[in-house]
Protein 1
Amino acid sequence: MADNDEVSIIAHLLEVEKEASKIISGANIKADKEISDAKISADAEFKKNYAERAEVLEKDFQTKKAVISSEHDKILQDYKTSVAGMTQNKEAFASVIEKELFGQE
């Protein structure tokens, strides 16, 4: 009868081990799903924050670009206006060119 009790105990222990294995397997599946869900959520949050920051930086860039472009256009126009008002001395210019390029005076 003792052998029958030992077999019964071993069979019971095997059932307990089988049940524990199922519980561990279920816990692993649940943990993997929670990790996957957390990663998906973190990625979505990162993308959202990245897009918002990129939009702010792009707007700032466009604003600064417009200001610089406007300043550039004004400086260029002022220069063109100042040059247009100058009188030309073609003889003096030709003399400088001849001196610098051909060594003649």
Note: The chain has a mean pLDDT of 93.
Protein 2
Amino acid sequence: MEQVKAPTKEVVRRWLRAELEQRRPPPDPKQIRRELGWDLARMAREPYKR
């Protein structure tokens, strides 16, 4: 008869972290633009306004 081994703490932590990340709501669109530098790219494309 084969005994079932408990998963290691590291495996459980990785699984729990992945589960929590999946349930987290997506970030605010402004935060996404800021992190990807979209505002900087837009500023570089647009003509300079005075």
Note: The radius of gyration is 22 Å.
Protein 3
Amino acid sequence: MTALVRPRDGRMIGGVCAALARRFGTSATTMRVIFLVSCLLPGPQFLVYLALWALLPSERTGKTATKAAW
């Protein structure tokens, strides 16, 4: 499993589904379909998505990672 960060590429809205898909080894499309189907069930899916969007860090690019090391 990889670190749970929102990737720079492959985002549709916030990158939460892409991050979860990368973490669990599935495709981003599969994770998006799972999320949309889960929205048919009662529960706080949108609130969880918004919380993950706010709490998950973005993936660093090469330039940002280099600057962070100094």
Note: The chain has a mean pLDDT of 85.
Protein 4
Amino acid sequence: MEEDNSINLPEYVLLRTEEPQVSSDGHISTGQNLVYNIEIDHPLQKDSLELLQDYFIQKGEKDFVGINKIIVRTYLKGTAIHGTPYASLNLVAGKKETLINEEALNIEELSQEDSSDEKVKEVADPIVGKYFCNRTHDTYVFNSDKTGFFTIQGGGPSTFTWKCSGSNVTIEYEAFGEQKLKFDQRSETITEKSESFGVLVFNKQ
């Protein structure tokens, strides 16, 4: 009988699992990723963080035999909406790489300040929120103060400012310039025309 290692783990919440596609013969192609998104209450010491990450690696290798790439994104409480993990573990072909993002600590402080203040203003703009693309696993976040984040899977966030007129959304990156998107309030989706992937649809989370 296997020992349950989870009883010794730091406290966490599993936010979302992005599972790889498995073919009819049970084969997982090398391009497929398994992604665990988890949340913790506060920054952990290195050994506790590694214990938690190793638990999900073992779980992933057991649940998806033959998986080549496992990503464990660890968010501090209240920061997942910004798409900036506190720690990201990438396991590719047996090699582990862990990235600690200090910016997430700043976001956590801002999130705590927001939650401590009484929210007098209601969110008026329906576009405000987080949007996720099932095809590319990229994320858009639109904040009520007209700022936002775009996060490519496994990468850090790129900040932008935005404005919305009807279904037309214009976002402006400091480094990359302007980009046009479409917003469908009824279906709660953002549509992006990508040179590499064609039309991408981002669904509100």
Note: The chain is about 15% helix and 40% strand.
